[in-house]
Design goal:
This protein is mainly alpha-helical. The protein folds into 2 domains: 9-158, no CATH class; 173-346, no CATH class. It contains 15 helices and no strands. The protein has helices spanning 2-16, 23-55, 58-69, 71-82, 87-104, 108-126, 133-171, 175-191, 196-202, 207-227, 229-241, 249-254, 260-276, 296-310, 319-346. Helix 2 (23-55) packs antiparallel against helix 4 and helix 10 runs antiparallel to helix 13. It is globular and about 80 Å long.
Length: 358
C-alpha cells in the first residue's frame, strides 16, 4: 500500500513540475524547437558568412561566425523552451548546449537533443524547491547536463562519424551506386538532428561525392518545401526550401511515410548528378551538406567551377553545367517529390495536415 502511495506521490510531483514523459513532447515538440534553434544559429550563420565571402565583406563573415559559434546554446534553449522550462533552467541550458555540441562533434545537434532534455527535466524538478533557488537550479541543471554530455556526447559523435565513414565507403563504388547511396544518406542526415554539413566538412567530402551529397540535400529541402505547399504556403516554402527540412522532423515522427517522397527523389537525382552531369563540389566541403540552405550548396558548386578554371582543370562554365545544377538542385526534386507524394496521398499513406508545420 505504501509503495502505491509513493508512486502516486511521485506522479503528482511530476505533474506539478510539468515533467511529462511522452514521445510527443520529446520527439515532436523538443525536436521541432531544436530545428528552429539550429536554423537561427548554424544555418543562418553559414548563409551570412557565405554571402560575405562572395561579396568580399569581412563584416558579414564575422557576423556569420558569431552566429555559428552559438549553435549549441541556441538549440538547447530552444529545447528548454519547448519543454516549458522556467527561466533559471532555460538560461542554464546555454552552458549545457555548448558542452554537448562541442563534445558531440559531428553528432553535436543530436547530442544536444538528448542532453538538453535530461538537463532541463532535472532542472525543472528542483526549480523553486529550496530557498536558495538562484543557486540550486542552475547548479543542478548545468552539472547534470555537462556531466551527461561528457558521458554520452562523444559516443553520439562517434556514431555520427560512422555515418560519415559509410559515405566515404560509398564514394569508392561506381558513380551510379555511389550517387544513390551518398545522395540518400547525406539527404537523410540533413533532415535528421545531426549535422550533415559537419559530417561533410570532417570527411572533406568534395568531388563527385560532394555533388551527390548536394543532390540529396536539395531533394530533401526542395522536396518537403514543394510537397507541403498546400499546408504551409509561401512561409513553409521559404523556411524549408532555403532553411532546413529538419523542420519536418516532428511530422516524420508522427508519420514516417512522409519521408518517402523526398528520399526516393534523392535516389534518382544522385546518380543523375554523378553519371549524367558529372556535378562536383570543388568548393568548401561544408557546402556539400547544406543543400539549398541559403543557396550555400549551389554557391559552393559555382565557386568550385571558378577554382577549377583558375587551376586550369576547366576551361569555362558551360551551359550544361548550369542546366545540371538547376535540374538536380531545384526542378527534379520538386517534380519527383510532388509526384511520389500525390501517389502516397491517393493510397492514404499521407493525409491532409501530415506535413503542416506549427
Amino acid at each position: 500500500m505504501s509503495e502505491g502511495k509513493q508512486k502516486s506521490a511521485f506522479k503528482q510531483f511530476l505533474e506539478r513540475k510539468n515533467i511529462l514523459f511522452s514521445a510527443k513532447r520529446y520527439g515532436i515538440d523538443a525536436l521541432g524547437a531544436m530545428a528552429q534553434g539550429l536554423f537561427a544559429s548554424l544555418l543562418i550563420g553559414t548563409i551570412i558568412a557565405t554571402l560575405g565571402e562572395q561579396i568580399g565583406s569581412e563584416l558579414l563573415v564575422e557576423v556569420g561566425g558569431f552566429a555559428k559559434s552559438v549553435s549549441g546554446p541556441a538549440m538547447a534553449v530552444a529545447i528548454g523552451y519547448a519543454l516549458q522550462a522556467p527561466p533559471l533552467v532555460l538560461f542554464s541550458l546555454l552552458a549545457v548546449g555548448s558542452a554537448a555540441n562541442s563534445l558531440g562533434a559531428a553528432g553535436g545537434p543530436l547530442a544536444v537533443l538528448f542532453v538538453a532534455i535530461v538537463a532541463a527535466e532535472f532542472g525543472k524538478a528542483v526549480s523553486k524547491e529550496t530557498k536558495v533557488d538562484i543557486l540550486v537550479t542552475p547548479l543542478v541543471t548545468i552539472l547534470v547536463g555537462v556531466l551527461f554530455a561528457k558521458w554520452c556526447a562523444p559516443a553520439i559523435g562517434a556514431a555520427a562519424s560512422a555515418v560519415g565513414q559509410l559515405i566515404m565507403w560509398a564514394t569508392e563504388l561506381q558513380p551510379f551506386f555511389m550517387g544513390i547511396l551518398v545522395s540518400v544518406i547525406v539527404g537523410i542526415a540533413l533532415t535528421l538532428p545531426i549535422s550533415s554539413a559537419a559530417i561533410c566538412a570532417a570527411l572533406s567530402l568534395t568531388g563527385l561525392a560532394g555533388g551527390a551529397a548536394v543532390a540529396g540535400c536539395c531533394a530533401q529541402m526542395i522536396g518537403f518545401a514543394v510537397m507541403s505547399f498546400k499546408e504551409n504556403k509561401w512561409g513553409g516554402l521559404v523556411s524549408q526550401g532555403l532553411g532546413t527540412s529538419m523542420l519536418q522532423m516532428g511530422n516524420i515522427v508522427k508519420n514516417p511515410r512522409i519521408w518517402i517522397p523526398p528520399t526516393l527523389a534523392s535516389a534518382i537525382t544522385g546518380p543523375i548528378a554523378t553519371c549524367i552531369f558529372k556535378m562536383q563540389m570543388n568548393g568548401p566541403a561544408v557546402s556539400s551538406g547544406m543543400g539549398t540552405c541559403g543557396l550555400v550548396g549551389q554557391i559552393g558548386v559555382y565557386t568550385g567551377w571558378l577554382s577549377d578554371i583558375a587551376a586550369g582543370n576547366k576551361t569555362a562554365i558551360t551551359s550544361l553545367d548550369w542546366v545540371g545544377l538547376i535540374l538536380v538542385c531545384f526542378v527534379l526534386p520538386a517534380l519527383l517529390s510532388t509526384l511520389f507524394c500525390e501517389i502516397l496521398r491517393k493510397i492514404g499513406w499521407i493525409k491532409e495536415g501530415d506535413l503542416k508545420l506549427d
